[in-house]
């Protein structure tokens, strides 16, 4: 601790001429950011925030930025500040006019040297030492790490088990037990539910079956997170870094709560984590691990799981495969193995599902943004629709119904309205009707469109959006199919405080900050001229981009859960050496599912 203070003191002394300017920049930014973010921070938190900004501002002002530094940090600062101020525009306290532009430029200019200094600190981090794999087989280390995480999660399982149910969970159980499969909920996950719970359902032992399923899903997620720590350890991370990973996964109960919810997201995001780790190994060895049969098999398995556990898995895998073609050693395997696999998956989820009647009818999810924007105009300016436009859009949903159903944070009320013509919208003509009216209104109502979009995607782009507690009580679904949440600790000891304490510890950082943090990691990799390592971040960038552009639903952290899973590995990738041997750093540990 003393050495850290000494280093900070020496650093500030060395750049003492910049101290006044850095103090003004950091002080103004902190004050304006908290003012516009509408957040009240305690004095210790504010001082810590200001101190970090001050040190980074000193570092950022000490030298003129290169063109690469200026462009990367300038764009990131402008994006961050736009969405910080955008919430005020949505709330009506600020308009998209010259004053908005002036405040945006001011806040971005203040953030720029702070962000530049932070990037300079990160780009000069020393690389991890040459890795030596721990003694013993990998499976033994994986089992140990998984057991540690399960022990840390056990109180949540005992106090909030057997599983957590929401509306989607009840629909999944309905399909698993009573039929009516469709890929609105991944069929693979629904069949998994049926395989495990069907015997208990028939025997009237649903509570016992739920405890079994909850423990199995929790163990699977714990094993995926444990593998990420094993992966770090086998590539040069020290015990302190691994210990901090355990502290994050076990100390924040959000991870344990999410592992118990009956939906596909914990497993999908866990697979996405493994997918990103494989891609990091692939980028480091420039694709040569895909020349080996074991590497191709691992990648195919991960790709199939990714595609069948969530609808957006296929486009993510397709874009990643296109990016992998830039690595010459991987190109042949992509064209001869992965491309046929992706085509086969598309045939199964397309024509085959269609012939079996398994395709989802919820096609409106992909058109959430234009639907929401038209609904906003309908609620605020119904006279904006001409008689012809009103007639055209009425074939999808009448203007009056859109106005009544509009909700700023989600398009769900519009899609589920009794007057929404889902059958017509499922056709090409239905989508053309929507887009034609949307395009006609765009020139005169672009501000309304922008406000509607910002309100809908606030949780994914606004740093002021509080993460809150993601324990998901779901009281409305509790008791469905005989599955009721029970506090075993209360029953055995009479102590009710543990359950509440675990829920209080589920508070997490604002979800958008995780995305901006990963963008910052990408900027650092670019500044260090390690652009190919961005391949490991690409799947997560695509998830975020899909949410920002498509906005399929209101904000829930489950859609960005992979970002939370990836936090320790994201920090480690900034320290890991860029190069590796042909099969990765540790041949036995590289890219194992």
From TrEMBL:
Keyword Cell membrane included in the entry's annotation: no
Keyword Transmembrane helix: yes
Record field: transmembrane: 18-37, 43-62, 69-89, 101-122, 142-163, 208-230, 236-257, 296-327, 334-356, 508-527, 534-551, 557-578
Alphabetized UniProt keyword annotations: Membrane, Transmembrane, Transmembrane helix
One Pfam family linked to the record: DUF6020
Protein name listed in UniProt: DUF6020 family protein
Organism: Allofournierella massiliensis
